[in-house]
What does this fold into?
Amino acid sequence: MQETNQGMQVEKFYYDNKIVKAFGYATVVFGIVGMLVGLWAAIQMYYPAISLNFAPTTFGRLRPLHTNAIIFAFVGNASFAGIYYSLQRLCKARMYSDKLSWIHFWGWQLIIVAAAITLPLGLNNGAEYAELIWPIDIAIAVVWIIFGINMFGTILKRREKHLYVAIWFYIATWVTVALLHIVRSIELPYSATGSYSWYAGVQDALVQWWYGHNAVAFFLTTPVLGLMYYFLPKAANRPVYSYRLSIIHFWALIFIYIWAGPHHLLYTALPDWAQSLGVVFSIMLIAPSWGGMLNGLFTLRGAWDKVREDPVLKFMVVAITCYGMATFEGPLLSLKSVNAISHFSDWTIGHVHIGGLGWNGFMAFAILYFMIPKMWGTNLYSKKLATNHFWLGTIGIIIYAVPLYWAGFEQSLMWKQFTPEGQLKFDFMQTVTNIKPMYIARSIGGTLYLIGALIMVYNLYKTIRQGKFIANEAAEAAPLVKVVSQKKQYWHRVIERKPLTMLVLSLLLVAIGGLVQMIPTFLVKSNVPTIASVKPYTPLELQGRDIYVREGCYTCHSQMIRPFRDEVARYGEYSKAGEFVYDHPFQWGSKRTGPDLAREGADKNKRPDSWHYTHMYDPRLTSPGSIMPRYIWLLDDKLDISSTPAKIRAMRKLGVPYPKGYDEIANIDLMKQADSITASLKKDKIETSSDREIVAMIAYLQRLGRDIQAEPKPITEQK
It folds into this structure.
């Protein structure tokens, strides 16, 4: 130690850059991999042959791989790199434990690798953004707790009295993601890799989009906002525009965001009061979101000359602008009149990628360009290459998103159009073939974005080669000394000194919204009216449903008919809450690349078993112009019926009314139904064995919507 001029002792210590470097490298590697998978999936939207007729590379399996790779591998690693870098400097302390830092790093990378193996194999829970199997869910919880211990240990041993605004967002991120993950991951395993969601139907949908919307909010937004509040002032060498605005931004954002999930379920079977609640809070969300955006942009007041020269600031300006665009568009899409147009269309995909490519991607690029030269004690190898990356990325985002908006409007208008005689004007397949040029343009935009990222890789590599890595960066600061002040202090200054208080307050604020939405939906039976004719799936149908989930069919097909004239005319009676009481998990979907399947089996004469067999063999034989991949392995692969008893027992525990002891005889009924389907196929000159997976898939598809025909009016259990 040494003394300052004021007589205070100064401690020397070292920041750990090794852990930041590791997360930074992982960001680059998994970012490129995730983008390549996304591009592959995008090309399949107009050229399905690129799936190679190979199960692991079909769109239904690549799409969850892409989303998980970008969310948890690319943005997750970028956030951890930025947090480990900034937290040490904001707290003026090395991380609490180097060992915990490395357990966190390797644990997270192993989770990513496990996801990269299991998702292409079809080990999938069927819940968007929460597809990973239950053992991986447990691993995520353990690694997240380790990260939290390390983060809070660092905060508690800090040498800086006040917690800077970035740390507020890190704390809220940690506690809310933990809550979201635990609640969404409550499931009942039936095997080492398989499980069923604890929730069913409407309740599962509410939990899913409470999680799904807020995974975007608290994994893709709040930590990146924390990074913005640290790296933007550092790069601009200017203070944050408004401390008070940052307070309003933080507390209002974390409280309001958590309520908005139901806006993903407008016009569905979710109770109207829950839908309206989601709409109200979504509109309110504009205020804190734009407060944060303006706080970021106004921080650059007087520094625009520097923005023209510094690629880091260029990326950040566009990132913050995209954040503002996405957080205006999100509330706009929650208006029922707008949602009636956008939902199930490619408009939503364009919206999501403005946030993903613009906000998350550009912020990740910016912090990499900022941190790496500093940790290697050198300058960026080439500002010109970084600027080229910036323009390629920006143009790529525009070429990516604009065609999807166009496609979304065209889809919705064509879906809803009637002839003067009152008939639907367009067949669904026409709405698919019409937007293929937009899909081609989207993939071109994605290619430009990927090329820009590859230029960054080269630029960072050359930067690293010309510098020397500073593994342990020397620093010094006076230890934190508690001083009892008689002077009245601003209320938030008091909270900033108490990280555990901030943790508890954040947890309370985010828990309120979830509890208000879930408790009535779960406990008040009138929110989910039952339908007497709806029965549990037969064993064969249950097996077929699990294959449907495995293949990711929910990524392209919805099972939710909204009460619109065109949807009822195209698909049949609109969907009721009581139809889904045995669905673990629900399968309402979020996009219609293919038609809705909620009433697919209501009229078996319309599409006989042989039609489904041929459709799975080659969709273009039954639906010319289809962009669906072939599922030829279903015709050859043997159905594993050894899992049937365990699945029936799990469903019984979840409240599905199978008779006691039915698990022991379920396979007898399974084979009887399978034999009847193979006999039906044989009549149409299709020979297949009863023990093939295609038979189970046909059984499930032919079941969809059939129960509702017997009793179309819902009845409540209350007298």
About this structure: The first helix runs from residue 18 to 44. The longest strand covers residues 9-16. Residues 381 and 463 are 5 Å apart (CA to CA). The two ends are 77 Å apart (CA to CA).
